[in-house]
Specification:
By secondary structure, the chain is of the alpha+beta class. The chain has helices at residues 3-9, 23-34, 53-60, 68-71, 86-103, 116-123, 153-156, 165-168; strands at residues 45-50, 74-80, 107-111, 130-138, 147-148, 151-152. The radius of gyration is 16 Å and the shape is globular. Bound molecules: flavin mononucleotide.
């Protein structure tokens, strides 16, 4: 897959097979996150790798739609310091990891951890750090239903698919 194909074919994967993620694949995913650009190159992130099924189960209970963490091979939680650009920097690292994963057939999905105190307690994250999000990684289950927590996608999401280009692109001004 070239870069463009990787970008346009990647969709959120919330259901995984039991196949483990080889260490070298996980390392490449983490390296892709490490090489993301960040504001003033502050590299504000820490990546907490969670293989333990018990810990992923506890983390899944910290978000409203975080159940996919339970079935993943690995979860990566991104933690930053506070700061104006922390969320943007997190997004860039997350997208890098998810694209690097997809380029080798590994699916992924973000989980918002709405109850930050819950995730902090599970992972032992210090109070001066922000828990931004978790990402599930694993090999996609080919028989997966198109659901989130058992709900059809359209019941949970603002939309399914993408708005057309002409609706979002403005030329030379609004
Ligand atoms: C900030 C953010 C938070 C998200 N939180 C969740 C979540 O908690 N649970 C989940 O299943 N998907 C979550 N997602 C994934 C979105 O639902 C997904 O990116 C969107 O529906 C597009 O999916 P698609 O690429 O398969 O079309 C999140 C995505 C982002 C960017």
């Amino acid at each position: 897959m070239n870069t463009y194909e990787t970008i346009v074919t990647r969709r959120a994967v919330r259901h995984f097979t039991d196949r483990p993620l080889p260490d070298e694949v996980l390392t490449r995913i983490l390296e892709a996150g490490r090489w993301a650009g960040s504001a003033k190159n502050t590299q504000p992130w820490h990546f907490i790798v969670v293989r333990s099924p018990e810990t992923r189960d506890r983390l899944a209970a910290c978000g409203r739609y975080a159940g996919h963490l339970r079935g993943a091979a690995v979860a990566v939680v991104i933690v930053t310091g506070p700061g104006r650009w922390a969320a943007l920097d997190t997004g860039r690292a997350a997208q890098n990891m998810m694209l690097a994963a997809w380029a080798e057939g590994v699916g992924s999905c973000i989980a918002a951890l709405h109850n930050e105190a819950c995730a902090r307690a599970v992972l032992g994250v210090p109070e001066d750090k922000q828990i931004q999000l978790a990402i599930s990684f694993g090999y996609p289950d080919p028989n997966a239903p198109a659901t989130i927590e058992g709900w059809p996608l359209e019941k949970v999401l603002a939309s399914v698919g993408r708005r057309p280009l002409e609706e979002m692109v403005h030329w030379e001004g609004w």
